[in-house]
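[[Per-residue structure]]
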Amino acid sequence: MKTDGKIELMNLKIKQMKIKQMLTVNKIIISFTLLIITSCTKVYTQDYNGKWIAKNNYIDIELELKQTGNIIEGGHCIIYGAEGNYMDCSDVNQKTINGILENGKVILDIQSKYVDGIVKISLELLSDGKLAWKLINYPKGIFFYPDSIYLEKDN
């Protein structure tokens, strides 16, 4: 009888260890799943909607963006030179911006009204609320879009 009791006790301890291991594995799986869900939804919770502006002595940029999920559309106006020498602006309510939000960045195509072609830029919403602009490529010809600049939301 003593031996049967010891065996039962050992079997019980083994079952308890297996249950603890299963609970640990389940916790890891749940934590990993939540991490994936959180990182995926973070990308889509970034809000690019609204008017974004950047101004300095040489350039005045306005982007009017509308975000639907991970799709970004809108219009633009970019004026370069102290005297407004070069201007590339879309007509009112004309969509000249098309882009997609992917991996925390937006890749935009801007249909230039100044030169016949597409300007490709990337936008990234920073933790301070600014929008980082980086020029990827542009059409041939006289061109005045900045390589990089920070835009702020116009309230």
